[in-house]
Structure formats: structure tokens, C-alpha cells
Amino acid sequence: MAARRKLIAGNWKMNGLKADGLALASDLAGRVKGAGAVPFDMLVCPPFPLLFPVGDAVKGSGVALGAQDCHAKQKGAHTGDVSPVMLKDAGCAYVILGHSERRADHGESDAVVNAKTVAAHKEGLIAIVCVGETEAQRDAGTQTDVVGSQLAGSLPEGTTAENTVVAYEPVWAIGTGKTATPDDVAAMHAFIRGELAKRFPDADKMRVLYGGSVKPSNAAELMATENVDGALVGGASLVADDFWAIATSCR
User: Fold this and answer.
1) Rounded CA gap, 123 and 116, in Å?
2) 245: CB partners within 8 A, 6+ apart
3) Are 131 and 166 in contact (CB under 8 A)?
4) 169 annotated active-site
5) Are strands 126-131 and 63-67 parallel, antiparallel or unpaired?
6) How far apart are CA 128 and CA 11, in angstroms?
7) Distance from C-alpha of 150 to C-alpha of 216, rounded to nearest angstrom
8) What's the pLDDT tens digit per position in 97-112?
9) pLDDT for residue 39
10) DSSP assignment string, 10-66
11) 6-247 — its CATH code?
């Protein structure tokens, strides 16, 4: 198996004002700089209004900047939307796409996620493409059918380990306090790896993250699970001590 460096990504969602974001970003930047060589990459994805100030706070620290969504077009009459070229201009290196909250709240289909991923790639952004099943789908035993279909529809041709990260987030574990067992995670991540290998020559190098109520108490076990290459962290990424503890659980 190819060695894959862990990625610890914080999805701040719709949380944080300027002062909060600056304090959190500056704290994390200081920890990464002070730690020297670390066995992980760290990423923060604040809300759109905080991209520039947070980007300034983490510049040169080793903490990367990402956004939580983008439009499939580079510019135009799309009120309220933000394009990949604007994200690049703000200093972003990554963008989260197809998060279950976007799929549910905004009706985003796999085709929409695919188009956004193509646009992100065109601007040199690394797309973190999210997939995951609902509790009802898992109870029905269709989780691999659901995730396989999302992967097939959401990942465009031209996807590589350099421009794409996959994040498995079981919808029933996001913000609920429920976490998939290590066995469940290992099984799904192995399935995802196999599906990627069917289409992409460098699938063994692609990072597949786990997300869904990741916290300091379960991070070490999850990060040690086979085919888990990091975490997409929600609530715990808003607390510097918790996010840092998750990151430093990587070995």
C-alpha cells in the first residue's frame, strides 16, 4: 500500500464571527508552527466571510485554507454564489463539495457535485468530495449501493490523488454523537478504495477521510483504522484543544 499522509480537515460550517475565527485560526497556526515536523496536514474551512482574515492568520504556518462549497461557473449572474476562481483568489487550496448538508438542504445531485468538482479542478483547487448513506439506507443494507452510486456520479474523469480527496461521512453520524464502529468504517473505506481503483490509476494514493462525530476520545482508534487517511471534523474543529488532539492522534 502506498504511504498516504493523513489530512485533518476542519469544517466550521455556519459558525464563527471574525474575532472567533481569527482566534481559532491563530491558535492552530501557532501550534503547527511550534510543533515542527508533524505526521499530518491540517486544513481549516471557515464560512465564506472569514476566508480572507483566516487565510491571513494561517499564512506560512503550514495550516491550509479551504472553503465549504463553490459554484460550477467561474463568474456570472449567480446571486449568492462563490466561484472557484474567487476561492483561489482568497488563498484557498481546498474546497469541500457534496457535503450531505448541501445535498439535503440545497438538493444537490451527484451531477451538480460532479460539475463543481470539474470547476474546482480547473482552478487548481483540491476537491474534498463527500459521500455517505442515511440511517435508513444503512438499516436497509444498501449503504454500499448508495455510496458506490455517489462515487460514480460525483467524481469526474480526470480525478487524481493530487486533485481530489474523498470523505466518507455517514449521514446518521454527523452532529449526532453517533459514530460508526471501526469495523463499519474499515469495511466502507475498503469498499470506497475498491471503487476508486476501478476508475483511477492512482487510487491507492488517494486519501479517504472519515467524518461523523470525530472527537478526541475516538480519534486514535479511527485514525488507526485501515484505509482511513484522516478526518473531516465538524463540531470538534471549533475547539482548538479538541481539534489539535484529533490531529495529534495521527501516528
Assistant:
1) 11
2) 216, 219
3) yes
4) yes
5) unpaired
6) 11
7) 29
8) 999 999 999 999 999 9
9) 94
10) EE--S---HHHHHHHHHHHHHHHHHH-S-SEEEEEE--GGGHHHHHHHHTTTTEEEE
11) 3.20.20.70
Calpha distance 228→249 (Å, rounded): 13
Is residue 174 within 8 Å of residue 213, measured between CB atoms?
A: yes
What are the cell numbers at 96? 469541500
| Residue 99 is among the residues annotated as catalytic for this protein | yes
3-state helix, strand, coil in the chain (%, to 5): 45, 15, 40
Q: Name the average pLDDT for the chain.
A: 96
3-state class (DSSP) for residue 89: helix
- Please, what sign has the CA dihedral across residues 152, 154, 160, 161? negative
Cell of residue 228, nine digits: 482511513
Q: Please give the single-letter amino acid code of residue 112.
A: V
Q: How many CB atoms lie within 10 A of CB 78?
A: 11
For residue 8, the surrounding DSSP H or E stretch is strand 6-11
Q: How confident is the model at residue 2 (pLDDT cuts 50, 70, 90)?
A: low
Contacts 24+ apart (CB under 8 A), 108-111: 109/153, 110/149, 110/150, 110/152, 110/153, 110/154, 111/153
22 vs 54: CA distance, rounded Å: 6
Among 101, 108, 133, 169, which one carries the catalytic annotation?
Answer: 169
Asked if 172 and 213 touch (Cβ cutoff 8 Å), the reply is: no
The active-site residue out of 99, 101, 108, 189 is: 99
